[in-house]
Design a protein that fits this description.
Blueprint (H helix, E strand, L loop, with lengths): L1 H7 L6 H6 L3 E4 L3 H5 L7 E2 L5 H10 L4 E5 L3 H12 L4 E6 H7 L1
Parallel strand pairs: 1-2, 1-3, 3-4
């Protein structure tokens, strides 16, 4: 199950509590997908730009919850951000995450 939760979101994370602690929601879909609907207050950083923006997110000194359409890209983004020292969580699919927060 470990690989599935790393790809599709960690079921044990309390996303609502993370948001209350100031976590940022980063949607890693394309700008076009983001424009079609997203979580209010989330920021759009496409997956191919995550490594370039990791330092900026690290400097914010806040947890980051990644999301996308299905959870696959957000899982990859979580791994990239963790490698850069960011406290990151894979929130999975944005529509599902929206219901949890």
């Amino acid at each position: 199950m470990g690989i599935l939760s790393s790809l599709f979101g960690t079921k044990n994370s309390d996303y609502k509590a993370l948001i209350e602690q100031g976590a940022l929601v980063v949607d890693v879909r394309s700008p076009q997908e983001f424009a079609g609907g997203h979580i209010q207050g989330s920021i759009n950083i496409p997956l191919n730009q995550i490594n370039a923006k990791a330092d900026m997110l690290l400097r914010k000194n806040k947890p980051v919850i990644t999301c996308c359409r299905s959870g696959a890209r957000s899982g990859m983004a979580e791994g990239m951000l963790k490698s850069a020292g960011v406290d990151a969580y894979n929130g999975g699919a944005w529509e599902s995450l929206k219901q949890k927060i």
